[in-house]
Design goal:
This protein has 467 residues and is an alpha/beta fold. It is built from 16 helices and 17 strands. The two termini are 31 Å apart. This is DNA-binding transcriptional MocR family regulator.
């Protein structure tokens, strides 16, 4: 392991990004050669005097840029790809507010909720006048206040097709925290957890920081491959399997009902708990969650981040009775309880119909951006369900993902390569994920999509890095 301690002085911006920028510079000037093993999250945090979480975010940011890659059980290493010279800034919004020449950021799935913004202030005024301040700012029950859990149970049935009672719902600080709780309820450090071979970056970071052995299982155009899942269960004896059956992240695939039943049957055969991430489920109302088919072996995880407002940081778990006490104990250990104020906001919106209006607006916008993308990008390169907030772009020959990412950046668009989602040492396809809802407005989205289409039409650019 290299004894790397970056210099952070004089660098503007959030601390995690400052560390990632310093890492990029040290790779570019040869201070960190290709193949160098980086310090552990905890070691670097100690050297810099920052939190482990800050280093985790910095490494995740560097992995998005294609600078580093993690290998389960071995550590984090500098990748063969070098950052392009004079990279365009990643800051957002652009300085001065001039969007004409600004970078189009398509790296994250970060929807903007105009109705929520318009409603939020009045909701806070109503809460202030309600006489509930003492209840909302004090310590609450570990699983959340009963009235908030009831509101979420109603919301899940209305928008996610999950039928459950309030007692089965446990509130958390967003879906990422809900995953940490779910993992902690069924596994211990060193235990194997299966995941789709391409999975969301936050899950990779969680497994790495908490010491779980995340093992990737092959996927196809319908999601997790049953035969491969069966083999992995038989060979590895996993405690759980994490999957996103509806609008999978990053491929935007919706797993067919028959495939879901196959996965459930295999999980039952080997005694594997299924951790279902359904944050995008509201976008595909006819997709029945795995929870509905197998509630006794499923820890269902979701949040309001993609549907109502990411900043509320309100997530939830639906747990079967035999796992409920363990999940609640994990919540107590991690954060005692989720804050009641964000849950109060969400509950009021659910009860007065505001939440349904927000979702309807979000669906309309997401569908419009998918139509826009599919009208601009070549049809044979576009993959995924047309209701998704993101899109999987499979690169045609002769493009390699690292060259395409560099060319896209040169043209003013930032995207995320498939390697950022690859689990362990799994090889990643030559593809990129586009966050269609990240650009501010359809005009900006169209500008970024046209730049990507132009890049795909310029195959000569793909050969420029070959000497």
């Amino acid at each position: 392991m290299t004894n790397w301690t970056p210099s952070l002085e004089g660098r503007p911006g959030p601390l995690y990004r400052v560390i990632a920028d310093a890492l990029a510079d040290d790779i570019a000037d040869g201070t960190l050669p290709v193949g160098s093993r980086l310090p552990t999250h905890r070691d670097l945090a100690f050297r810099l005097g920052v939190t482990v979480g800050t280093v985790t975010r910095a490494y995740a940011e560097a992995e998005k840029r294609g600078l580093i890659g993690g290998e389960v059980g071995r550590g984090t290493f500098v990748q063969g790809q070098r950052p392009p010279p004079a990279p365009l800034p990643i800051t957002w919004p652009p300085a001065g507010g001039n969007t004409a020449d600004a970078v189009v950021n398509m790296t994250t799935v970060h929807p903007e909720h105009a109705v929520a913004v318009q409603t939020f202030g009045q909701t806070l005024i109503d809460i202030a006048a309600s006489g509930r301040a003492a209840t909302l700012i004090g310590y609450g029950p570990h699983a959340g206040l009963p009235e908030h859990r009831a509101a979420i149970a109603a919301w899940l049935e209305r928008q996610h097709r999950v039928r459950t009672g309030p007692d089965s719902v446990l509130l958390t600080n967003g879906a990422q925290n809900a995953l940490a709780v779910a993992f902690g309820a069924v596994a211990r450090p060193g235990d194997v957890i299966l995941a789709e071979r391409l999975t969301n970056i936050g899950t990779k970071a969680l497994a790495a920081t908490q010491g779980y052995h995340l093992e990737g299982v092959p996927i196809d155009e319908h999601g997790l491959v049953p035969a491969a899942f069966d083999s992995a269960c038989r060979r590895l004896g996993p405690k759980a399997a994490y999957l996103v059956p509806t609008l999978q992240n990053p491929t935007a695939v919706v797993m067919p009902t028959a495939r879901r039943r196959e996965i459930i049957e295999i999980a039952r055969r080997y005694g594997v708990v299924l951790i279902e991430d359904d944050v995008f489920g509201f976008m595909v109302p006819d997709a029945e969650p795995i929870h509905g088919m197998a509630p006794d072996i499923t820890l269902y995880v979701s949040s309001v981040s993609k549907s109502l407002a990411a900043g509320l940081r309100l997530g939830f778990i639906v747990a079967p009775p035999e796992l409920r006490s363990r999940a609640e104990a994990t919540i107590r250990a991690l954060q005692y309880s989720a804050p009641a104020l964000p849950a109060e906001v969400a509950a009021r919106w659910i009860q007065d119909g505001t939440a349904d209006r927000i979702v309807a607006t979000q669906r309309e916008e997401d569908l419009a951006r998918q139509r826009l993308a599919r009208s601009i990008l070549p049809a044979d390169a576009v993959c995924g369900h047309p209701a998704a907030q993101h899109l999987w772009l499979v690169l045609p020959e002769p493009w390699r993902r690292e060259d395409f990412i560099a060319e896209a950046r040169r043209r003013g668009v930032i995207v995320t390569g498939a390697d950022a989602f690859a689990v362990g040492r799994a090889s990643a396809p030559h593809a990129v994920r586009l966050g269609l809802c990240m650009p501010r407005g359809r005009d900006e989205a169209a500008r970024g999509l046209r730049a990507l289409a132009d890049a795909l039409d310029a195959p000569a650019a793909a050969m420029l890095s070959i000497v």
